[in-house]
Design brief:
rod-shaped; mainly alpha
Length: about 270
């Protein structure tokens, strides 16, 4: 007797549907051909391993298959056949799922690569956008500064134009004033030149008069010097006469009386 009957194993794969199918197909599986087919199927059946490699493959030879077929009922053989079909289908589905999984993993890797590329591209684009924003802000600030400078320069140009007009008007006034003063100075210079000419003529006439007066004065000085010489000679004669008179008086006084001498001494 088998401790694990196939009727219990069928519930692992098909549940109640498999049991009903087994009970309905049991009367038809009593022929010898089905027994032989089931034995051959059991002989070729292998237990495959899962992806994790839990158990090795088990191969059955013809003798073992015949012994198993002689011990099993047609219903159990039918369950074995259905289990084999389901196993093949599961293997096929597993292989397909494995291929789909590999494809999905490849697609996922490519998607990850594309995602990483796009993320880097987005970051680079954000950096470029930020850089462009900063450059735009710098350009805007520079533009504002340029506008302020232009406004300042416009005001300065207007002030300079106004001052230029004022300077031109003042220059015209100054030029007219200078022309007036030049005319006045020319008139004054003419008057002064006329006065200078008159003074020169007057000096020339005065110089002639002075020369004539000098000649007269030289003659008078010469005559005065001659008179002084004559007067000095007369004075010298007078002094000589006076000396002679004193000598005569002294002689007379010596020949006179003593009383007279005393009186002379008192004098």
């Amino acid at each position: 007797t088998n401790p694990f009957p196939f009727s219990n194993v069928s519930s692992w794969f098909g549940g109640k549907d498999d049991a009903s199918t087994t009970s309905s197909s049991a009367p038809t599986a009593t022929t010898a051909s089905s027994t032989t087919t089931a034995a051959a199927a059991a002989a070729t059946t292998t237990s495959t391993t899962t992806d994790t490699g839990a158990a090795p493959e088990i191969k059955l030879n013809a003798a073992m298959a015949n012994s198993m077929a002689s011990k099993l009922t047609p219903a159990e053989l039918s369950i074995i056949l259905r289990m084999r079909e389901r196993l093949q289908k599961c293997e096929h589905d597993a292989a397909q799922w494995k291929r789909e999984r590999e494809d999905a993993l490849g697609n996922l890797a490519s998607v990850e690569a594309v995602k990483e590329f796009l993320v880097n591209r987005v970051r680079d684009t954000e950096k470029m956008v930020q850089t462009q924003k900063e450059e735009m802000e710098l350009h805007q600030n520079k533009h504002l500064e340029d506008q302020e400078v232009i406004v300042f320069l416009d005001e300065k140009v207007k002030e300079l134009e106004t001052s230029l007009k004022d300077m031109k008007s003042k220059e015209a006034e100054t030029q007219q004033h200078s022309l007036d003063r030049v005319a006045k100075h020319e008139k004054k210079s003419r008057v002064l030149s006329d006065m200078l000419q008159f003074e020169r003529e007057q000096m020339a006439s005065n110089e002639k008069e002075w020369k004539a007066a000098r000649k007269v004065l030289v003659k008078e000085v010469k005559s005065c010097r001659a008179k002084i010489v004559a007067l000095e000679s007369e004075l010298e004669g007078c002094r000589q006469q006076n000396g002679l008179l004193k000598q005569g008086l002294m002689g007379i006084s010596q020949t006179g009386s003593p009383g007279v001498r005393k009186k002379n001494m008192r004098w």
